[in-house]
Amino acid sequence: MTIKIKTADELEKMRHAGHLAAQVLDYIAPRVEPGISTGELNQIIHDYMVNTLEVIPATLNYHGFPASSCISINQVVCHGIPDFAKKLKKGDIVNIDVTVIKDGYHGDTSMMFCVGETKPFAERLCTVARECLWLGIEQVKPNNTLYEVARAIQTHAEANHFSVVREYCGHGIGAEFHEDPQVLHYAAEELKEIILQPGMVFTIEPMINLGRPEIKLLSDSWTVVTKDRKLSAQWEHTLAVTDTGYEIFTLRQGETPFLPNS
């Protein structure tokens, strides 16, 4: 495993890319409403990325992925393919995941949206998944390990009777979309060997399921769903380890830490 330590110049480029990625989510947020299709949302995202922000949509044609965003509804865990025939309905929960490339560096982030009025258990899942992200982030500081990050996430999810997806995880990021290390969201022993150092940059993106953790890959070779077809929720940020803790590159406008009872 080779974990790249970013230079000050690289960190500045990643800071800028992350800020632009966050702008995409801020821009699309008011358009996530009942009746709009995921294909329309993706088209709006693509046009905003390319024409307004002048960035490259990292997911488009990445290993053959056909869209500029991943849009995952309800039981879809991740990598949902936008579709003009798939319209959002009142009560849906939806994750929109975007990654931009600017000046050769990536910014990667996602968030959940509740479409119209949702069931309390669905809203609760989205809330706890967001808390899991932030509890993981709070463990990021020099000389901690990725084990502390994962343990904080898993402990909170399971205390709320939810489960953590194991097959998909966060990742190092920089000039490459996916770099070392793999950022698991459950407390695997091997994570104790990955000691955090200033200049490391990675994503934390826990996928939290309402039911069991098992997942299934659909025949399109991209869409991942919960095996029991119960809901899943995910939030994601790109962040760097600093001398004193962490710096999040993908904070949205007005976003502050989202911790339990905060």
In a few lines, what is going on in this structure?
With 262 residues, the protein is α+β, with helices and mostly antiparallel strands.
Explain the overall architecture:
The protein is an alpha+beta fold and 262 residues long. The protein has one domain (8-248): Creatine Amidinohydrolase (Alpha-Beta Complex). Helix content is 26%, strand content 24%. The chain contains 4 helices and 15 strands. It has helices spanning 8-28, 38-53, 120-137, 146-159, and strands spanning 56-57, 70-73, 76-78, 93-102, 105-114, 163-164, 170-172, 179-183, 201-204, 207-209, 215-217, 224-226, 232-234, 237-241, 246-248. Strands 1, 2, 4 and 5 form a 4-stranded antiparallel sheet that branches. A 3-stranded antiparallel sheet has the order 3-12-11, with no helix packed on it. Strand 7 (170-172) and strand 8 form a beta hairpin. Helix 1 packs across helix 2 (38-53) and helix 3 packs antiparallel against helix 4. The model has no long low-confidence stretch (mean pLDDT 98).
Entry keywords:
four-stranded antiparallel beta sheet; Creatine Amidinohydrolase; 262 residues; single chain; three-stranded antiparallel beta sheet; alpha+beta
